[in-house]
Hints:
Blueprint: E1 4-9, E2 16-21, H1 24-34, E3 44-47, H2 57-62, E4 68-73, H3 81-92, H4 94-97, H5 118-123, H6 152-178, H7 184-200, E5 223-224, E6 241-242, H8 248-253, E7 258-261, H9 265-282, E8 284-285, E9 288-289, E10 291-292, H10 294-302, E11 307-310, E12 329-330
Parallel strand pairs: 1-4
Antiparallel strand pairs: 1-2, 3-4, 5-6, 7-11, 8-9, 10-12
Helix pairs in contact: 6-7, 7-10
Amino acid sequence: MATKGFKVTDSERKSRVGIAAKTLDDLKRKTVEKFKLGLSPDEIFLQTQDGTLVENNEYFQTLHAQTLLIWVKNGEKAPTDAEILYKTIREVNDEYLSAGEKVQEFFTEKMKNKVFKLAEVLRGIDGDKAKFSLKCDHPEWFEGLDTNAKTKEDYMFRRAQDRIRTYYYKTREELLKECPTVPQHRLRSLIDELQNRLKLSKFNGHFFDRRDDKSLCDTRGEFTCQGRWNKDKCLYSPPHSINPYESREGRIVFQTWNLDHVIERSRAVIPQIVKALNDAECTIVNDRETSVDVKAIYNDLFTLHNLKFVHIVCHDKGRHSTKKAGPYLLY
């Protein structure tokens, strides 16, 4: 395994330290040493800026060099930069923000040395720079990023990959943790096949890449909200839209948009996967064993067959009770 450099900070973002490590355990050990923590490496976790926990070495190896990671104590979770900035904006102008639902549009993800004034967000952004792609042509777009991407498209491609990888590793962990009674050979085979399909599709990085004709945005980089899980479209007029290619602020606010499972991943898809794995083990049709429908599972977990890209206002985290998963059996 190659050594990669990471930037590690605490939950309050008070200090940032560069640490080189080969494995997750190595990085946790060095984090304890560098920050002089009175804790063992097993008593801390590392999370990404969007709140995703780096729970295993396999996921750790997918992280790019110079990724910013936040250490937290076991059982705790650091607020994301979006939450920190939103809280600060509310404190600055709580009366205005409480006046209407437009508050949701002012979420932003990065706060380093200053808070963006609300007026700057409201005033709008010069959209002419959206056409620029290279870092040398629009350097302020890349300000504050820990990335070696040379173009906006490369950076956005990786952000889409990150979201899909998160779904894969969460699914993998839940299946391995919650399903000790499931036939393990079938479970391992399914997990491996899902990963292989994701590798072939490059973890669907094209979702956010405006160069790709299968992207969720148009050629200029404009994304339009696809509406709540139980609606055919965004019901707001005009519909929510955003172009993260236009500005640093747009790129930051874009982090609050969600790839939402219409048929819920944890509540619906995973239980049906477990059922299919168990049923496949004991069901015989015409003297032949049944098999698990890997393609259908893959589509429900990782593709636009079951994913909608939505503004935070249209992201309903309640139970999607009318949407059922499976059955994931092939006879």
